[in-house]
Design a protein that fits this description.
- The chain is an alpha+beta fold and 1205 residues long.
- The protein is built from 23 helices and 54 strands.
- Helix 2 runs antiparallel to helix 4 and helix 10 runs antiparallel to helix 11.
- The N terminus is likely disordered.
Length: 1205
């Protein structure tokens, strides 16, 4: 077994290295063959255009549009005085420009895809200025315009970013401009060589929005899309895109319930549009939908307490390979993705090759994570001395401990003294030792960790072939011991212009992700938080110190009831390991049939494998508990694991194929080309095959060739055979999903005044119910926008842009695993019936009446820009109504099922967002960019669920849905105070009105007795960002805020249920517990009670849990009610210093001596401080008392290096 596993691991690494070698070989071969040759044919479209007495600037812009390829740059001062009359038919761009500039003193130059228009005057002096223009990455900018306004002449840069400009004066002022870059004014002397760097203009909106099916000119965008460049959201030391999105995208909520490096946050775009369906957004990479490596059910993904350590669809993607993100939020943006896009779409566009000489870029980060400490303000626990004093108080009050309690610490020393095994002197000595022990569980179970990330990419090429190749390596070490994440990535992209009509792109990428983390039943953070510090971890000789812990089931054969336990030993003898790898190849062929019609064909295939292995060693408590004996002791005959350990394997393989054929029309028409039509129609086929294998085996020896014991005598260990072996069979999954789709979109624009758009898509799938296929229910949308400045004719120099947009559409959704007919699963041979058997398959119950879940979406928005981009403002409002929402309806289990999916729900989501960007200061050496965003999300459930659908814990934890309340609302018991007699907790629990609850359903009972306490998800999120640039220095500060959520304080009284345990640590709040009458006026902490305390049984057994009450049980005991009362609910609002970074860009004068294009050093820090409610008493707002204590966001400190050469 061991050799097989090693071979599998070795073959995985060999496969990855072969992939990497192929990628680099392909990239190198094309790079060598491409050279710097330009295409022999003009890649632009032929131009047909006529105008009469038109402004030259307008005519030039029309030529730029009609060419579909070229970018024409000019100065308005040069062209504003000219009006022209021209008639062109099937003309090249050269002929068009020649005709336009005839009878003017203007000339043009074509360099690649850039056309520069300039004024030509005779020069009386041959003086020149030479130089090079590059971006902040050191890459040359081809086509940058250099204008000498004083002498009214200029030029543009060549492919390598170089230029030569004749001048007459000794000193001139140059104005350098480039699309998407900040304009720069530069003083230069004749005869000199200058090196100029242009920075990205963060205040400009992107020219293009990428939807995955189309690239849309933002001037004609009618839908709600937020576009960001990857470099604007990258955080030093953060290697996963999911964690970079918090506060960066309006209407996107990122929820982190664990700070582990392997934990994947939950993402919600504009609320939750479904009740029991998947609420995660759809991920698209370079136009292809990508899926999660392991199929997790929607109820797991929707569970607010679930920690997803497996990862999601883009966990294997290197952020260094990403160029931009476009988040599609309304129906007009997502309609083309059909049934899978009701929760929004995040479109990722990866980097691609550039024209020019090869540029090699290397980036690296080194990150230190700070572990938790008992001295942190979020830790409010007793030290050893306080914990011993608390135990002494319990004993002094004749507290009765639970009989099955682990005997350890003060209680163990006292027991030894009472048993006579130690003297009073020895007892006092032991107590003194325990009081100063202060075992640092955080130090033993966590560590200050070091992580590093490396990425190398090479890009370059010519007009004929552009290439981009990259490799990446990430090694993340979490603060939790034995928790790691290693990722290997490789990518190669080729873009080829085969001819004027034919373009081909090819993209291959692969990744290998190796993760290790603790078993789900072991939570080191929860253990460190809840375990007494008066328990030793080691003996004096350095060996593990064990304390006795009760078995789950005592052995009747041997009489064993307790087994030695040590958390360090348990972690040493257990693990979970995950190995995920994926490979994707995509080919995209585009044929330009005419200057206004093109056809594209895309084919993509993806193979993903995931192997998760869980191990419990024979030396640990888990195995001993099943064995019912200590390690090394002969197992009793009633053992459930006589020898060895337990090994579980979860293997999955996914094969996905996508084929798409799409025709695109982009045509100007009209006498002045004032009309513009853009339309696409296409068909798409998707096939997804998922195979899974899940099995748990016992008798495993990891240290003996990974072998299994094979000779256990069933006559001796009958319980093992009848209770485990005979029923332990693997679970196999084999699912295929086929989706056939047709879609269409059309947009019409009149000049730059307005645009209207319509989209539709129809999906047919083998997973839809029969009734849903009988009805044509396409996804569709209509939308429009108008440029108010041009349409109304606003003539104001301070107003750059003012755009209004609106959209409406309907989207559909269908649950997986639903069938219109009864599905039987063929089973194996039954020894009882002596024949082959068949059963109803999981989710195979017939549901022919199930319809689509429909979401109706309305969106309106306003975008504006002022003062040459110094101020930009945007606002959006949306309203989403989901009807026929899927809900579970309980049914009699006589059918073999306990619930049934029906269309009966209605959910409302509405909200708005505001975003503002300002450049308050902008000088030659210094500028300050300030931006902020504000998103408000309101969610409401408009339908009552089934009366018996949800249990009590669902209401207390916020997983039940309640009519009139937001999804995620949790309920609490109404705390009214402490008893003045015994200090017990009292509640308004309808004890005096219990007759009114008789006969009520669970739903009606709980919404009457319990009170809604708040929402687990915030309704307001946003960020505040400032970037300061001073010469070569750049300082960035980001603050994230969250408002409207609530959380529970960590549970304090759960030990009361069975009695205080010597093993557990205690919250310091209990030092202020009620002790005597009158204390109830100054404290709300209940008194310490045991079974011999007066009134104990009143609090220990709730009145609703016994007779003669005939209604729904409300609670088990008062201690649980206290932890789940409204008293223990606090605000989860926070303002967090999310990240701070300082970057120094080495001057070009220095780099030229070193042969480098760019060298930058960055210092960064994340999670520095969180401002929150003081009632949390150090508990972070993202942590809660709903489940176990998880790792909070820990501070990180990063050093980054970027080199281009």
């Amino acid at each position: 077994m061991q050799s097989v596993t090693k071979k599998r691991e070795k073959s995985g690494r060999i496969w990855f290295l072969m992939l990497l070698g192929c990628i680099l070989s392909i990239g190198t071969a094309f790079a060598q063959s491409a050279g710097t040759d330009k295409p022999a044919t003009d890649p632009g479209k032929r131009i047909t255009y006529q105008c009469n007495n038109e402004q030259l600037s307008t005519a030039i812009r029309q030529i730029e549009r009609l060419s579909g390829y070229y970018k024409i740059q000019f100065a308005y001062d040069d062209v504003e005085k000219y009006k022209i009359t021209v008639q062109l038919k099937d003309a090249s761009v050269e002929k068009a420009m020649t005709q336009l500039l005839k009878n003017t003193d203007l000339r043009y130059e074509i360099n690649g895809r850039f056309v520069h228009v300039f004024t030509v005057k005779r020069q009386t002096d041959k003086k020149t200025i030479r130089g090079a223009i590059r971006d902040t990455n050191g890459e040359p900018l081809e086509g940058a315009a250099i204008l000498n306004k004083a002498e009214n002449n200029g030029t543009i840069t060549d492919m390598e970013g170089n230029f030569v400009l004749p001048v007459r004066k000794e000193t001139v002022t140059l104005v350098i401009t480039y699309v998407g870059k900040k304009p720069l004014t530069y003083k230069a002397k004749s005869g000199t060589v200058v090196h100029i760097t242009l920075e990205d203009d963060a205040t400009l909106m992107s020219d293009v929005v990428v939807t995955g099916y189309q690239n849309i000119d933002r001037r004609h965008l009618t839908s709600a899309v937020t576009s960001v460049k990857m470099e604007d959201i990258q955080i030093p030391g953060v290697t996963n895109l999911n964690h970079m999105l918090e506060g960066k995208i309006p209407d996107l909520i990122v929820s982190n319930n664990s700070g582990e490096v392997n934990a994947t946050p939950r993402l919600r775009i504009r609320g939750s549009s479904t009740i029991i369906g998947n609420r995660e957004p759809l991920w698209v990479v370079d136009g292809i939908i990508v899926n999660d490596p392991v199929n997790l059910s929607s109820d797991v993904l929707n569970d607010p307490d679930y920690v997803n350590r497996i990862g999601n669809a883009i966990s294997g993607l290197n952020p260094q390979d990403i160029d931009r993100l476009d988040v599609l939020k309304d129906a007009a943006a997502t309609a083309l993705y059909g049934t899978r896009a009701a929760n929004g779409v995040i479109v990722i566009t990866t980097k691609k090759g550039r024209i020019g000489k090869p540029v090699v870029s290397y980036s690296a980060t080194a990150t230190m994570r700070r572990r938790p400490r008992y001295t942190d303000r979020k830790i409010d626990l007793m030290n050893s001395q306080e914990r011993i004093r608390f135990s002494q108080d319990l004993v002094a009050n004749h507290y009765i401990y639970p009989s099955n309690m682990p005997v350890v610490g003060y209680e163990a020393a006292l027991q030894n003294y009472y048993n006579g095994t130690s003297t009073n002197e020895q007892f006092q000595s032991e107590v003194a030792r325990l009081q100063t022990m202060n075992t640092d569980w955080f130090d033993l179970l966590t560590h200050d960790s070091f992580s590093h990330d490396h990425s190398v990419n090479v890009s370059g090429g010519s007009e004929a072939v552009r290439y981009y190749t990259s490799i990446g390596y990430t090694d993340e070490d979490d603060v939790i011991n034995n928790t790691t994440n290693r990722r290997y990535t490789a990518t190669a992209k080729l873009d080829m212009t085969l001819s004027k009509k034919l373009l081909l792109s090819f993209n291959v990428n692969g990744y290998l992700n190796e993760r290790e983390y603790t078993q789900d039943d072991l939570n080191p953070i929860n253990y460190a938080y809840n375990t007494s510090r008066a328990i030793p971890a080691y003996n004096a000789d350095g060996t593990y110190s064990y304390y006795l812990k009760p078995l789950s089931y005592a052995s009747f054969d041997s009489g064993t009831t307790h087994i030695g336990y040590n958390i360090l030993n348990e972690l040493e003898n257990s693990y979970q390991k995950q190995n995920t790898n994926g490979f994707t190849a995509t080919a995209n062929l585009r044929y330009n049939a005419t200057d206004w019609l093109n056809v594209s064909a895309i084919f993509s295939g993806t193979l993903t494998n995931a192997d998760i292995e869980g191990y419990w060693g024979e030396k640990g408590f888990y195995a001993s508990d099943l064995r019912r004996s200590e390690y090394g002791v002969t197992p009793p005959t009633d053992s459930m694991l006589p020898y060895g350990g337990e090994l579980s394997t979860n293997t999955s393989k996914t094969k996905s194929y996508t084929g798409r054929l799409q025709a695109n029309i982009n045509k100007f028409f009209g006498a002045e080309s004032q009309h513009y039509l853009s339309a696409s129609i296409g068909g798409e086929a998707n096939s997804n095959r998922y195979n899974g294998y899940l099995h748990t085996q016992r008798g495993h020896y990891a240290d003996r060739g990974k072998s299994f014991i094979a000779d256990i005598d069933p006559a001796v260990f009958n319980n093992y055979y009848t209770g485990f072996v005979m029923s332990n069979v693997p679970t196999l999954t084999d699912n295929r999903t086929n989706l056939l789709s047709a879609y269409a979109t059309a947009s019409y624009s009149y000049k730059d005044y307005f645009t209207v758009n319509a989209n539709t898509r129809y999906d047919g799938s083998n997973k839809f119910g029969s009734r849903s296929n009988e009805k044509l229910l396409p996804v569709w949308s209509v939308s429009g926008m108008t440029d108010l400045k041009n349409a109304i004719g606003i003539h104001a120099d301070w107003l750059d842009n003012l755009t209004f947009k609106a959209s409406y559409g309907e989207q559909g959704n269908m649950l997986d695993g639903q069938t219109p007919v009864l599905v039987l699963r063929k089973g194996s041979h039954s020894s009882y019936y002596d024949e082959l058997t068949s059963t109803v398959a999981p989710n195979g119950f017939a549901n022919p009446d199930l319809k689509w879940e429909k979401t109706h979406s309305t969106n309106v928005g306003l975008e504006s820009s002022f003062f040459n981009g110094r101020l930009t403002f945007g606002a959006e409002y949306y309203y989403k109504k989901t009807t026929d929402a899927f809900m579970e309806k309980p049914i009699s289990d006589i059918n073999g099922y306990t619930s049934y999916i029906v269309n009966s729900g209605t959910v409302i989501n509405k909200g708005y967002n505001l975003n503002l960007t300002v450049v308050p200061v902008k000088t030659e050496d210094f500028n300050w960019i300030f931006s902020t965003s504000f998103s408000k999300i309101m969610n409401e459930m408009k339908t009552a669920p089934g009366q018996e659908t949800y249990e009590l814990e669902d209401f207390l934890n916020g997983t039940a849905v309640v009519e009139g309340q937001p999804i995620g609302t949790f309920y609490s018991y109404k705390f009214v105070g402490l008893s003045p007699v015994d200090g017990g907790p009292l509640f308004d629990d309808w004890e005096d009105r219990q007759s009114e609850l008789k006969g009520l359903s669970k739903y009606d009972t709980y919404i009457r007795v319990l009170t809604p306490s708040g929402k687990r998800d915030p309704d307001i999120t946003g960020s505040i960002n400032s970037t300061f640039n001073y010469q070569s220095w750049r300082l960035g500060i980001t603050l994230n805020y969250s408002l409207g959520a609530s959380t529970r304080l960590f549970r304090m009284m759960n030990n009361f249920i069975n009695g205080y345990s010597a093993e557990m640590n205690i919250n310091r709040e209990l030092l202020n517990a009620w002790k005597k009458p009158g204390d109830e006026l100054t404290t709300n902490i209940p008194s310490t009670m045991s079974r011999n305390s007066n009134g104990y049984y009143y609090y220990n057994a709730h009145w609703s849990s016994g007779s003669p009450y005939e209604g729904t049980k409300i609670a088990d005991d008062a201690w649980t009610m206290y932890d789940y009362s409204d008293l223990r609910v606090v605000s989860a609002d926070y303002l967090k210093i999310a990240n701070v970074s300082l970057t120094y860009e080495f001057p070009k004068t220095v780099l030229s001596h070193w042969g480098l294009q760019r060298l930058a050093l960055t210092l960064g820090a994340t999670n520095l401080y969180t401002f929150c409610d003081s009632k949390l008493k150090g508990q972070t707002p993202t942590q809660g008392g709903f489940s176990e204590v998880q790792l909070s966001d820990t501070p990180t400190y990063t050093l980054g290096l970027t080199v281009n050469f």
